[in-house]
DNA sequence: CCTGTTATTGACATTACGTCAATAGACACG
DNA sequence: CGTGTCTATTGACGTAATGTCAATAACAGG
């Protein structure tokens, strides 16, 4: 008897919505976004496919909500960057700290973040949220920090603060996705250390010169 | 009279194939890959949609062929990197040279390269060709160059050659796509100079220290 | 035990895909 | 010039996934 889903069950909307989000996350831990279909997510919830549309406009809306859940963690990086004072030694420490936190977020939520990044290529709305709500936001934060450090004489004046910020942020995003964004491949502690060390080296050498 | 495509016309296979590739390129100069449908490409050729499948397996096969057309240009960067001697001053010049050539390729073929990068998120075969046939190839080339420079004492020993290469290559790819990959936005000479300067600054400071 | 609300779903319309047998250009040959 | 052959081309079909909606049935409150 295939398709026997048992008797109907009625949940509170909020509960059903959470179940769908959880199912999507679980799905993306196993398979990439390109294979994620509405049906494929909904079978994991015990609900029918049309039920999905009672809670989400489409799968891109779903992805956007997943991003909201993680977004908060990355927003925390904003003020870490901005809060640091502009005196020599501290600037580097603040940077390393923020990089470590960012890397950890990618270790924890790699596949989901990867899915969001992929979905940005599929849908204009997701691209909007991802690019302007996350990436661009980080670029602005990092850029203003670089700008301050340049004015304070800690960082070299040849750097264009905003462009340098954009290049470094994009590097960090793609490099971390490359390292931690594949489903079914938990990185070892050693791998994580090498990845983090590489990012630190490039950021520090670019902004503050040799260690 | 919609749909009137006039009398059938018969072309030589090679000619039809070139027409399709050209139509795809033209399409991607105007609209992103996510909107590219087989029908949308074929109307520009005067052929019917099914004709497409006589020449390409699907639109990802088409994208792969487009990449082949540009790939040669980027392969040239391989040996630029490797051919350079390992004496101090020259290493930097070779790097700057290769960066400039790479940037120019993105200026010339930005939207197509962007489409290929997007398509890599859609299809496993395209991802394979893009990641392993292009990105990874550049990573290896750059990595072995860095390795040589580290051994020669030109670059700092803290760098992990392969990982540093990967981070820098990914940065360059995404940053150039960001700058030159949007359809309908030809970059000004000034913009190009800023983008190129930023890349140069990060690469040089990372690998060879302050200018 | 009813009854109204609403979460849930079966069934439908749509779009893009990939295939294939049938059609009709163009060239070769008489 | 016919005329026949080859094959580029296409109409028509089956499939997969999407998004919608009227009908259904689970649960809460009386």
UniProtKB/TrEMBL annotation, chains A, B:
Annotated keywords: DNA-binding
UniProt signal peptide: none
Origin species: uncultured Rubrobacteraceae bacterium
Gene3D superfamilies from the UniProt entry: Homeodomain-like, Tetracycline Repressor, domain 2
Domain of life of the organism encoding this protein: Bacteria
Molecular function terms, GO-annotated: DNA-binding transcription factor activity; transcription cis-regulatory region binding
Name of the protein in its database record: HTH tetR-type domain-containing protein
Every HTH tetR-type domain range: 14-74
DNA-binding feature ranges: 37-56
Pfam family, one: TetR_N
InterPro entries: EthR_C, Homeodomain-like_sf, HTH-type_TetR-like_transc_reg, HTH_TetR, Tet_transcr_reg_TetR-rel_C_sf
Keyword field contains Ubl conjugation: no
């Amino acid at each position: 008897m295939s398709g026997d889903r048992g008797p109907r069950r009625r949940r509170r909307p909020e509960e059903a919505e959470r179940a769908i989000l959880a199912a999507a996350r679980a799905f993306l831990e196993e398979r990439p976004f390109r294979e994620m279909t509405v049906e494929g997510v909904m079978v994991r919830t015990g609900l029918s496919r049309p039920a999905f549309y009672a809670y989400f406009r489409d799968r891109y809306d779903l992805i956007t909500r997943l991003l909201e859940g993680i977004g908060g963690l990355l927003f925390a990086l904003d003020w870490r960057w901005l809060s640091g004072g502009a005196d020599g030694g501290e600037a580097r420490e603040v940077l390393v700290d923020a990089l470590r936190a960012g890397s950890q977020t990618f270790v924890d939520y790699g596949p989901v973040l990867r899915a969001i990044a992929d979905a940005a290529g599929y849908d204009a709305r997701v691209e909007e949220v991802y690019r302007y709500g996350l990436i661009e936001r980080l670029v602005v934060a990092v850029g203003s920090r670089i700008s301050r450090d340049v004015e304070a004489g800690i960082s070299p004046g040849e750097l264009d603060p905003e462009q340098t910020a954009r290049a470094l942020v994009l590097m960090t995003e793609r490099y971390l996705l490359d390292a931690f964004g594949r489903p079914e491949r938990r990185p070892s502690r050693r791998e994580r250390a090498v990845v983090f060390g590489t990012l630190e080296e490039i950021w520090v050498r670019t902004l503050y010169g040799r260690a």
